[in-house]
Every structure is written in structure tokens, then in C-alpha cells.
Design brief:
It is a single chain. By secondary structure, the protein is an alpha/beta fold. The chain contains 16 helices and 5 strands. Among the domains are: 46 residues; 61 residues; 179 residues, Nucleotidyltransferase, domain 5 (2-Layer Sandwich). The longest helix has 46 residues. The two termini are 30 Å apart.
């Protein structure tokens, strides 16, 4: 790896998060990519690095694989005879195809002449350098002959080839920058990447459109995943509080906290993530991972958030859905003890708690969606790393592209919205604005 001054910097295992290691291991074991290809794609140093990750985190145990048995002379002779028959059959087929190919080439050459003469389509002149190179390799035709065939001179071919080489070199530099960011945030979207890398991209002469073109050409655009599990039980006898933030203008950190629980496991291994998030800065103040939907996890998340308050003398409202975890006596007593007012949604629409739902989606889609099959201890470690990266490094659109931790230090920045009159519960009209 090279730093911005072009100096070589050696990476250590601490430079790779557990989530990143597991993602690479999964791709290699599933046959999506080879070891060398994965090393080049992600800029991983050391020939043994990925093998070590597979041995430690992989799903397959090679010790159970049987050793190959040596064939007898009779079996080898039989195999050679079968191979000879296949080659003879293939030879007859190739001779037939060659005859057809000659006729087809003559026909297509005639069709190209007709297209160029009658429809004025310059097919030969629009041939790309890589197409000429492929033809040169496959047919063993000289470059001069190919250029004459398509009606261009060699100088134009070399200019086009130089342009392709220049574009590829530029793309390699951009992809290297992207990989450096995605080592910690594997599914960070294109807009956030462009914001984080804006200075480096400007130095390379790469604008927004060209940046997205390079991402698209190298399959680096992130597709959102859709997954929904119900975690709210509103049918209970506990008191349901009124919505105190429906028309509230949010203008400072620790004015409103939003809480929610999201499902992050599998049917065989259910796990739940409880979050407490600041509505103004989008900073995750407290969290808890458990394999239960009881109020214990939500209480632990709230206690953690209370310890991390930076403005303890300011009035604070806690907003959540009407789930039994938040309406329970233990949770309400803790809110009262901490001096925090309680607010709840008054509808069954999940977007009534839009900020909390959005933060859930970011963590699941960008950080932990590939690791739902892991055990509780491993998931706790991944969630801890992911939340730290999210708070400290991931830019937010609604925070004027600042990371949440930086936004949490602001006191005068306006709560960003594109609607003249809006409420927190109405933000589902444009959920992407919370991204």
C-alpha cells in the first residue's frame, strides 16, 4: 500500500476489520473470486494473509477431504481411448465449423458493405482498439492488415490504444482509493465515497460523473438489500405515551433520542440489536446485542447512552415505538430516574420513527448484513467495530456530510430538511435525505 506521498506502508492485521476478513473469506470459499484475484481486488498484502483468514474463519475443513487415488494402467488406457474419441469427434466438428465460418465471414463482409453504403453506418471506422487486438490474437493477422480491413490508419489505432491505457491507469488509482475506504466500510455508497475522496479525486482530475462511471465499470456500486422482520409488540397493557416530537423543531444534539430494536440474526440463530441514536447528529449513543427481545437489551443500551451524554444539563426527550420493551415498567422507571421525557409513535407506520429506522438500515446494509450467521460473541465484536466506524468516519447527508461524532459537537447548524414544514414522523416521504 502507498500513502498520499507515494511511500510504501506495510499493513498489519489490525488494519483489517473482522467484517472485512469475513467478507473476503466468504467470497473465496463460495468460488466468487480466487485467492490472487481477491488479493489484487482488495489490495491485501502478504501471500499467506487470505489463507490464514480462511483457516481461522472459514466454513470448510480440508482435513476431511479424501486423497486422490492412483489409476491402474487399464484405467489410464481406457481414459486415453475415450479422450482420443472425443478429439476425433471435436476435429470433425471443427472442420465443419471452419467451412461454415468462411461462408459466414463472406456473408457478413457483404452485409457490412451494404450497411456502410446504404445506411451510412461507419462500422469499420468505429472499431475499438481492444477489438482489433482480440482479432489480431485470435486470427494471427498483422496489425497493418487489420487496420486496412476496418479502414483506419495505424496512428489512430495507437492514439485510441493510448487513451484506453490512460483510462485504465486512472481507474486503477481510483479503485485503490475506494478499496482503502471500503476496508473499513465495505458497503459505503457512492455519494459518501465521493465526498470522502473529493480532494484526491480532484487531484486526479476525476469529477462526480467519471467517478461513478469507474465504479460502475468495476462493479463497485452497492445495491441496497431489502429485509424486514417485525420486532414491535404493541398489544400489551402498559401505558402508551403521546408523541411529543410530531411538530418539534430539532436544532441541537441531545434534544431528542430515538430508540429501536432491529433483527440481525437467522431463524436458527436469532439476535437483536437495540440502538439509542441522537436525532440531530445521528450519532449512536448506546447499543446492545442479545439473543432476546426482552427489555433487558434496551435498558442496557439506554444506560450506555446516558453515560455518554455530553450535554447532561439540557432537556432531553426519548422517542420510540410503542413496543413492550419501551413501555415496560423497568424501562419507564429508568427514563424517570435519568430525567428524560418519554415520547412514542401514535401509529403502526414504521416510518413514524424514521431516524431510528434509517440508522438500523445503514448498519445492517452497509456493515453487518453478511454476518448474520455468526455466533453472538462474534456479532458483538463486529457491531462494536461497525458502530465506532459509523460514528467516527461515515459521512451523513443530513449532517452536511460530516460524520455523526463531528456533528454531535455542533450547536448552531440547522437540522437539514428539504420541506418547509416537516416533522420527524413525516421524513418517510424522502427517507434518502436521512442517509
Amino acid at each position: 500500500m502507498e500513502n498520499k506521498e507515494g511511500q510504501y506502508v506495510k499493513r498489519t492485521q489490525k488494519d483489517y476489520t473482522l467484517a472485512f476478513k469475513l467478507q473476503v473469506v466468504s467470497e473465496v470459499e463460495n468460488g466468487e473470486i480466487g485467492l490472487k484475484a481477491a488479493q489484487r481486488k482488495y489490495g491485501i498484502q502478504g501471500d499467506r494473509t487470505i489463507r490464514t483468514w480462511i483457516e481461522k474463519h472459514g466454513q470448510y475443513d480440508k482435513s476431511y477431504k479424501l486423497r486422490s487415488m492412483k489409476k491402474s494402467p487399464e484405467q489410464e488406457l481406457m481414459a486415453l481411448r475415450q479422450q482420443l474419441k472425443l478429439l476425433e469427434k471435436k476435429n470433425r466438428r471443427l472442420e465443419k465449423e471452419l467451412n461454415q465460418a468462411d461462408k459466414k465471414a463472406l456473408f457478413f463482409d457483404m452485409m457490412i458493405d451494404i450497411a456502410e453504403e446504404e445506411f451510412e453506418i461507419p462500422i469499420r471506422k468505429k472499431s475499438l482498439p481492444e477489438q482489433l487486438i482480440n482479432s489480431k490474437k485470435k486470427k494471427k493477422i498483422s496489425l497493418s492488415s487489420l487496420c486496412r480491413l476496418v479502414g483506419i490508419n495505424r496512428q489512430k489505432y495507437y492514439r485510441s490504444k493510448a487513451k484506453v491505457r490512460s483510462n485504465q491507469g486512472l481507474a486503477e488509482k481510483v479503485v485503490a482509493l475506494v478499496q482503502e475506504v471500503r476496508n473499513k466500510m465495505p458497503r459505503l455508497g457512492g455519494r459518501k465515497l465521493y465526498h470522502l475522496l473529493q480532494a484526491e479525486l480532484k487531484a486526479l482530475g476525476v469529477g462526480r460523473d467519471k467517478f461513478f462511471t469507474i465504479l460502475r465499470a468495476n462493479n463497485l456500486l452497492v445495491r441496497p438489500r431489502k429485509n424486514y422482520h417485525t420486532t414491535t409488540n404493541s398489544f400489551h397493557h402498559y401505558r402508551k405515551h403521546k408523541n411529543k416530537i410530531a411538530d418539534l423543531k430539532i436544532y441541537r444534539p441531545e434534544q431528542v433520542w430515538v430508540s429501536d430494536i432491529t433483527y440481525i440474526g437467522t431463524r436458527e440463530n436469532p439476535m437483536y440489536l437495540a440502538l439509542v441514536t441522537d436525532a440531530y447528529s445521528k450519532q449512536i449513543m448506546g447499543y446492545d446485542v442479545s439473543n432476546s427481545l426482552s427489555s433487558i437489551g434496551s435498558i442496557r443500551a439506554l444506560k450506555q447512552a446516558a453515560k455518554r451524554r455530553q450535554y447532561p444539563n439540557e432537556e432531553l426527550i426519548h422517542h420510540s415505538d410503542r413496543g413492550i420493551q419501551y413501555c415496560s415498567n423497568d424501562y419507564q422507571q429508568l427514563l424517570k430516574k435519568l430525567g428524560i421525557s418519554c415520547s412514542m409513535t401514535e401509529s403502526y407506520d414504521p416510518y413514524a420513527n424514521a431516524v431510528a429506522e434509517r440508522i438500523n438500515g445503514i448498519l445492517k446494509q452497509e456493515f453487518i448484513a453478511d454476518f448474520f450467521h455468526l455466533g453472538l460473541d462474534a456479532m458483538k465484536k463486529i457491531v462494536a467495530q461497525s458502530i465506532d466506524i459509523y460514528n467516527q468516519a461515515r459521512p451523513h447527508w443530513s449532517c452536511q456530510f460530516m460524520p455523526p461524532a463531528e456533528m454531535h459537537q455542533q450547536q448552531e447548524l440547522e437540522y437539514k430538511s428539504y420541506k418547509k414544514k416537516t416533522t420527524l414522523a413525516q421524513d418517510h416521504l424522502k427517507p434518502e435525505l436521512l442517509n
